[in-house]
Amino acid sequence: MEKFYRAAAAFSSGVDLYLLPGQYSRSLLYPDKTVADLGTCIAFDGHRRIAAGSLAEVAMATKQAVDAGVDGPVLIFDELDGRPVELDLRGTLADVVARLPVPPQDDELAPRGPGRPKLGVVAREVTLLPRHWDWLASQPGGASAALRRLVEEARRQHAERDAARLAGEAVDRFMSAMAGNLPHYEEASRAFWRKERQRFMQVTDAWPADVREHVRRLATRAWQASTTA
Prior knowledge:
The chain is mainly alpha-helical. The chain has helices at 55-68, 93-99, 130-137, 142-157, 159-179, 185-193, 197-203, 209-228; strands at 5-8, 17-19, 40-45, 48-54, 74-78. It has two domains: 5-99, no CATH class; 159-228, no CATH class. The strands form two sheets. The protein has a three-stranded antiparallel beta sheet, with helices on both faces. It is flat and about 60 Å long.
């Protein structure tokens, strides 16, 4: 029987994910997130860190660790938001790397030819009041163009606030998955959100070293982001 590797656990939903070498799917918890959306990642074998770095670097290190017979569970996280990452570990090391999706090229950096620029837009349903549709229809370029401008403006205006929120959520997700069953988890969570730094350091001091180091680094990043938001 093939060995399962736990990919995420202890989320509030109670859903566990398992990584089985030979299978790949989008995360059941986050169906809109694929590995193409990821930047840097970190992988753990139980509470021991396997590797941290780019998706390719972490994938290679994880593949080698799994082939060597780690005890597991093997967990991989996106460094940016703390969400779990699933990889297809079938075949050789080269096979694993070759299957990693290539992030789409930024439209702003892509070379443009003649004609209308390729926007890469995605159609989804939006529900608005009639007066909202009336206003959007009166804007230059129509409703879709107006909505894109509004979103881009909001992203620029609230970039720091959004970064602080994302950093805080990353701490919460990682702690829930990796430290949910460790001593003083609840106290650590409260201390983090209250920005009680000294208390946070005290209650996490007995945690496994690699988990402690990473969660403290995430917490420091979140506190720093909140001061500029």
